[in-house]
């Protein structure tokens, strides 16, 4: 038999409930908004042999540490538990993102070599960070070509973020895209289209000078296209002109240096041209009449110069005073 709810007991329960509801609501709000540490996406960042120029710039970028700590669980190659963690990561519901940075030894006795192979197989995706990892076909002897020797042999998707250094927004943007969606759309070189779809030349501040044929002829000359100084902007796909460097302060071309093409596979040799060798117009998809017909214009200018020299010589010959000679080249007979 249930006890009867009296008016006094009802009032007591209501008073108790009114006091505890705000506390319970606060706990519920904290529970709903709290982000469990284990629910964050795992990133394994393996550092191989390389210059490290882009990594230093990325890690020193303001706010990058807090960004990673909020959204990811980052394990670097310097972590003491990196080797024992490989087995744990294979059992995760969300596979990790593997970032490979630099050159990696092909020595089978190297523990990193074996770890690298195990991690690639169970990764959600692999990001090749920097030119050493992205274009390791130019690798030194004793190091792996990551693309052909490892990644093409497994089903794990991968993409590249080349550059010297890599723009920080390329890495953050790619990671954000993977949080919200999946892998970004890639170009033929497996670079994200959202960062490598347009050439440097298309966004350059001197694009108008390029079309008009207003070219800089020597270093230090201001205001003009740097194509004749070896700028690789017409064949380089990157977003430097839009994002710039040093906190969006400036970028290579704006500082007076031609684009070095650091995000392209041919960097820094560029088929023998080097950093400052001028591109052949046939190799660059460019629409400038002055560049497209550079050889014709040069030949025409040379021909006009020769014609001018010839005409000048003839005019001088014709206007010169006659000597005491006949026009036929022999002296006239004098009076006896």
Structural class of the helix and strand makeup?
alpha/beta
How would a crystallographer describe the biggest sheet?
A: 5 strands, parallel
Count of individual beta strands:
5
Rounded to an integer in angstroms, the radius of gyration calculated over CA atoms is 34 Å
In the sheet with the most strands, the strands line up as 2-1-3-4-5
Shape: globular
CATH fold node name of the largest domain: Rossmann fold
In DSSP terms, counting alpha (H) and pi (I) runs of 4 or more, how many helices? 14
Supply the CATH superfamily name of the largest domain.
Answer: NADH:ubiquinone oxidoreductase-like, 20kDa subunit
Separation of the first and last Cα atoms: 172 Å
Ranges where pLDDT stays below 50 over 5 or more residues in a row are: 294-305, 322-336
The helix fraction, in percent, is 25-40%
Overall CATH architecture of the largest domain? 3-Layer(aba) Sandwich
Residues in β-strands, percent: 5-15%
Average pLDDT works out at: 77
Instruction: Summarize the helix and strand pattern as letters.
Output: HEHHEHEHEHHEHHHHHHH
CATH class descriptor name of the largest domain: Alpha Beta
What layout of secondary structure does this protein have?
Elements: H1 7-33, E1 41-47, H2 53-59, H3 64-71, E2 72-76, H4 85-90, E3 97-101, H5 111-121, E4 125-129, H6 130-134, H7 146-149, E5 158-161, H8 168-180, H9 193-196, H10 200-203, H11 207-212, H12 240-243, H13 289-292, H14 294-319
Parallel strand pairs: 1-2, 1-3, 3-4, 4-5
Q: Can you give a write-up of this model?
A:
This protein is α/β, with parallel strands linked by helices and 336 residues long. The chain has helices spanning 7-33, 53-59, 64-71, 85-90, 111-121, 130-134, 146-149, 168-180, 193-196, 200-203, 207-212, 240-243, 289-292, 294-319; strands spanning 41-47, 72-76, 97-101, 125-129, 158-161. Strands 2-1-3-4-5 form a 5-stranded parallel β-sheet, with helices on both faces. Helix 5 links the parallel strand 3 and strand 4 (125-129).
């Amino acid at each position: 038999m249930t006890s009867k709810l009296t008016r006094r007991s009802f009032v007591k329960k209501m008073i108790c409930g009114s006091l505890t509801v705000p506390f319970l609501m606060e706990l519920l709000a904290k529970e709903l908004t709290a982000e469990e540490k284990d629910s964050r996406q795992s990133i394994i960042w393996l550092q191989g042999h390389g210059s490290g120029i882009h990594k230093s710039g990325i890690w020193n970028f303001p706010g990058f540490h807090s960004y990673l700590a909020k959204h990811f669980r980052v394990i670097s190659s310097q972590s003491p538990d990196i080797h024992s963690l490989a087995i744990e990561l294979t059992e995760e519901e969300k596979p990790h993102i593997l970032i490979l940075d630099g050159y990696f030894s092909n020595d089978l006795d190297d523990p990193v070599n074996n770890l690298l192979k195990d991690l690639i197989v169970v990764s959600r995706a692999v990001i090749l960070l920097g030119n050493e990892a992205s274009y390791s076909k130019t690798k030194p002897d004793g190091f792996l070509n990551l693309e052909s020797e490892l990644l093409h042999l497994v089903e794990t998707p991968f993409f590249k973020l080349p550059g010297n250094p890599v723009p920080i927004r390329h890495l953050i943007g790619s990671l954000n895209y993977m949080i919200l969606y999946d892998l970004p759309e890639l170009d033929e070189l497996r670079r994200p289209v959202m960062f490598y779809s347009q050439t440097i030349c298309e966004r350059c501040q001197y694009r108008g000078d390029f079309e008009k044929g207003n070219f800089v002829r020597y270093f230090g000359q201001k205001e003009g296209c740097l194509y004749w100084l070896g700028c690789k902007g017409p064949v380089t796909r990157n977003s430097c002109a839009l994002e710039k460097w040093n906190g969006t302060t400036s970028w290579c071309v704006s500082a007076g240096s031609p684009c070095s093409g650091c995000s392209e596979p041919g960097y820094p040799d560029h088929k023998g041209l080097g950093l400052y060798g001028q591109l052949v117009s046939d190799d660059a998809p460019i629409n400038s009449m002055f560049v497209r017909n550079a050889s014709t214009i040069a030949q025409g200018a040379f021909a006009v110069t020769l014609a001018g020299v010839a005409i000048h010589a003839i005019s001088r010959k014709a206007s010169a005073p006659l000597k005491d000679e006949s026009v036929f080249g022999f002296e006239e007979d004098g009076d006896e």
